[in-house]
């Protein structure tokens, strides 16, 4: 097509193309609706050859989309299948340089308008408009294109070809054969037009290419456009590949995550793994951890993520997190220091215990003041000391209720290992926190009333000394940062109200005892028990069993019988059980009754209700006679009577002791024997009684721990009774240590002993004069029923019981049997 024979006419119809430039040598298809343009085309169709000028319209500032340049085959297809997209016509202004084209094909569109397929031939200038023409027509002249071959044009050409090749690989909008097309074009002008046609250039820039005067200028323009387009394409490529990378990565991540989930599901973890971690993190935020704990928990959570689902390690971590996150780090009960209300609660829950309640209220008052002044710290820890079942635990509960706090109780009985208090380190298999932290976890608040039960039964051995750990727990100066081995985190115990209980003060480790304020609770008399039963135990049991007061009657006489003959205890625990079991049977009997009438439980019915658990009063169990004397013993379960029996058997061993006596008691027995021998002359006891006989002393009753010196006067009296043959009445009991010279020394546990003695049916008591002060606080009924005689020497007792055996009439201060002396100092 390089040597086309077409000559440029002097004048030509022309059409204005809205958004494209048709270049010489290039094929293009264009559609028209405008009648004037169609008339111009009609003119062209009547010419031979059918030529027409195409000029670009001027639309300032607007970029044109690429004209639809099509291959001849495509053009043919379009012309066979239908019209191309129509183009706007009749812009107001147009360029003066255009292209003479030859029309190859024309198609009339049924809806109106025509489409033509044209090929550019020459570059022309519209010289002058022909005014009389009814359609656009102008005088035209060719703008010749002079090929020049210089080194510059050659260099530019080569650059353009290589750039075109490069762009061909970069730009997806270029046809695959773009590179081949450029290589096949020989005419450098045509090459410029071909490339300009395919590049996405605005109309103005296309026009610039068309108008460029010299080949070098045209080549420059094309090279510049190619470089720019390559840059754009490369940048676009980079952006695209970056986006592609991102998309790929997110797709890859998604894929991996899905795969991981599938694997976890296979392993049985399901999606719980994620949920669990989220749950732990959330909980960690909610529970108000200390900064130290926060760090540790975060560390453990990330360890958990790594450890994976069901591994042993994950289980250990989970247990730890469960414990830490379940602790009351910042949860507190609102405390109450209303003393009137506290008194009401204490009274409602417990009968009497006046001194104990007073002491507790004092403590509350001090605490309230400290709280008001914002002072920390507490005085000594309260220790409720007394036999079982006297209400120590329930007092603790009432104190908690009165203070508006939670209550926890931890038993320390048998604790010998420090780890029980402070926990095992996490490196141990199955390690758990100690009892203190476990208790707080149970309380769910950081300021509960925390009862350490049976602190007298804490022991120490090779596993460490629990009392050292307890000291730290109870010391307000140290317990702000209590460190459990398992948690390995400081936990603040300073808000906890610690209380302890014990049956015996002697076995409380001394350093602990030193920090405690003992509040003694003694055993109850049967009258007190009766009151407690009436006011507390029966109403509570009735509530539990939904029994109404109109349905039954437990008269006092029956209750007394239960207390005295069916229970033997200092407290009321067993009484409580008996009452509950009677009421339970009443509920059953009521259910079986056809005519509902009140059930009255009488004394003789008790065997039916409670079985034959009849307990004989001790005094009735033994026979009185020479050599048998009643003593008094203190046990952790309350006061008891104990019998000293002695017999003389021929022999020369001198002395036999049986009944599992402790060393101190054995020594005490020896002293008793020596003292008795020293008085044989006064009492007319023949000397051979001791030289020809063996004295056997036996103390029956396996349940009573028998040690200590307090049976001294009892054993002396028993030996003298045996030697003189004078019995001591079985309603008499005595307690006191004896010295070798016969002085009666004071002993402990008087209050418990006397309550126990009265319960056992004793009526007369001999005790060391120095112990008389201990009888002041005895319940009134005990003082009323017991004749209490203080003695300073054993000789006083001898005069009371063995006066008839004495060679001389008794001298000095005598003690008349049955005289009342209680309350005297
Ligand atoms: N003074 C009292 N008033 C009302 N109820 C009482 C009284 N004393 C004891 N109780 C009742 O006796 C029962 C036993 O008391 P609790 O369990 O507190 O005894 P404890 O002294 O703690 O014994 P332990 O030392 O064995 O733990 C409880 O039901 C309690 O309510």
UniProtKB/TrEMBL annotation:
Residues 623-804 form the Lon proteolytic domain. It is found in: Cytoplasm. GO terms for biological process: cellular response to heat; protein quality control for misfolded or incompletely synthesized proteins. Coiled coil: none annotated. GO terms for cellular component: cytoplasm. It catalyses: Hydrolysis of proteins in presence of ATP. One of its GO terms (molecular function) is ATP binding. ATP-dependent serine protease that mediates the selective degradation of mutant and abnormal proteins as well as certain short-lived regulatory proteins. Required for cellular homeostasis and for survival from DNA damage and developmental changes induced by stress. Degrades polypeptides processively to yield small peptide fragments that are 5 to 10 amino acids long. Binds to DNA in a double-stranded, site-specific manner. This is Lon protease.
């Amino acid at each position: 097509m390089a040597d086309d024979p077409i000559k440029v006419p002097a004048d030509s119809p022309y059409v204005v193309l809205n958004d494209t430039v048709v270049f010489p040598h290039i094929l293009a298809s264009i559609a028209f609706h405008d009648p004037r343009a169609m008339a111009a085309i009609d003119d062209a169709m009547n010419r031979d050859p059918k030529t027409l000028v195409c000029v670009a319209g001027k639309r300032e500032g607007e970029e044109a989309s690429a004209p639809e340049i099509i291959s001849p085959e495509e053009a043919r297809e379009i012309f066979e299948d239908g019209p191309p997209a129509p183009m706007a016509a009749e812009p107001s202004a147009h360029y003066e340089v255009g292209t003479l084209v030859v029309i190859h094909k024309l198609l009339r569109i049924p809806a109106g308008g025509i489409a033509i397929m044209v090929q550019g031939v020459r570059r022309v200038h519209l010289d002058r408009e022909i005014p009389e023409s009814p359609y656009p027509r102008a005088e035209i002249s060719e703008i010749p294109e002079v090929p020049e071959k210089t080194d510059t044009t050659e260099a530019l050409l080569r650059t353009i070809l290589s750039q075109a090749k490069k762009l061909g690989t970069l730009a997806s909008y270029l046809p695959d054969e773009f590179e081949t097309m450029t290589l096949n074009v020989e005419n450098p002008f045509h090459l410029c037009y071909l490339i300009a046609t395919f590049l996405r250039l605005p109309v103005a820039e296309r026009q610039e290419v068309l108008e460029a005067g010299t080949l070098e200028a045209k080549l420059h323009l094309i090279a510049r456009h190619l470089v720019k387009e390559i840059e754009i394409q490369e940048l676009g490529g980079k952006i695209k590949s970056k986006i592609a990378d991102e998309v790929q990565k997110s797709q890859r991540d998604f894929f991996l995550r899905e795969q991981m989930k599938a694997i976890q599901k296979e392993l049985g973890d399901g999606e719980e793994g994620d949920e669990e971690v989220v749950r732990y993190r959330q909980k960690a935020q909610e529970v108000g951890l200390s900064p130290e704990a926060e760090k540790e928990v975060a560390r453990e959570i990330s360890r958990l993520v790594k450890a994976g689902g069901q591994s042993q390690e994950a289980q250990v971590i989970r247990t730890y997190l469960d414990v830490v996150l379940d602790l009351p780090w910042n949860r507190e009960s609102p405390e109450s220091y209303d003393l009137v209300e506290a008194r009401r609660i204490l009274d409602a829950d417990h009968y009497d215990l006046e001194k104990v309640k007073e002491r507790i209220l004092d403590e509350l008052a001090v605490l309230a003041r400290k709280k008001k002044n914002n002072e920390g710290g507490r005085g000594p820890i309260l220790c409720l000391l007394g036999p079982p079942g006297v209400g120590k635990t329930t007092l603790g509960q009432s104190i908690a209720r009165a203070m508006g706090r939670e209550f926890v109780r931890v038993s320390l009985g048998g604790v010998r290992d420090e780890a029980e208090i402070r926990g095992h380190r996490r490196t141990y298999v199955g390690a758990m926190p100690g009892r203190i932290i476990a208790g707080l976890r149970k309380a769910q608040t950081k300021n509960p009333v925390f009862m350490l039960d049976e602190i007298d039964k804490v022991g120490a051995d090779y596993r460490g000394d629990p009392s050292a750990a307890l000291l730290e727990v109870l010391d307000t100066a140290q317990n702000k940062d209590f460190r459990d081995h398992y948690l390995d985190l400081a936990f603040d115990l300073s808000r906890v109200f610690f209380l302890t209980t014990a049956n015996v003060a002697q076995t409380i480790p001394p350093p602990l005892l030193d920090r405690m304020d003992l509040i003694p609770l003694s055993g109850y008399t049967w009258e007190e028990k009766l009151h407690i039963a009436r006011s507390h135990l029966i109403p509570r049991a009735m509530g539990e069993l939904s029994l109404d007061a109109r349905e039954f009657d437990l008269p006092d006489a029956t209750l007394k019988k239960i207390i005295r003959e069916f229970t033997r205890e200092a407290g009321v625990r067993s009484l409580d059980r008996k009452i509950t079991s009677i009421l339970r049977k009443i509920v059953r009997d009521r259910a079986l009754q056809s005519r509902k009438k009140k059930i009255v439980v009488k004394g003789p019915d008790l065997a039916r209700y409670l079985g034959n658990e009849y307990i004989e009063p001790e005094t009735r169990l033994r026979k009185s006679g020479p050599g048998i004397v009643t003593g008094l013993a203190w046990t952790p379960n309350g006061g008891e009577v104990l019998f000293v029996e002695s017999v003389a058997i021929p022999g020369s061993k001198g002395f036999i002791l049986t009944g599992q006596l402790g060393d101190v008691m054995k020594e005490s027995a020896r002293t008793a024997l020596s003292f008795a021998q020293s008085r044989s002359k006064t009492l007319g006891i023949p000397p051979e009684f001791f030289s020809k006989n063996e004295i056997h002393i036996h103390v029956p009753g396996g349940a009573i721990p028998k040690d200590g010196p307090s049976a001294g006067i009892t054993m002396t009296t028993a030996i003298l009774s045996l030697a003189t043959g004078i019995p001591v009445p079985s309603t008499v009991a005595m307690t006191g240590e004896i010295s070798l010279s016969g002085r009666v020394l004071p002993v402990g546990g008087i209050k418990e002993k006397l309550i126990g003695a009265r319960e056992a049916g004793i009526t007369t008591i001999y005790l060391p004069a120095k112990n008389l002060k201990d009888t002041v606080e005895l319940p009134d009924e005990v003082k009323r029923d017991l004749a209490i005689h203080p003695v300073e020497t054993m000789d006083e007792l001898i005069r009371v019981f063995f006066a008839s055996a004495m060679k001389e009439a008794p001298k000095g201060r005598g003690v008349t049997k049955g005289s009342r002396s209680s309350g005297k100092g």
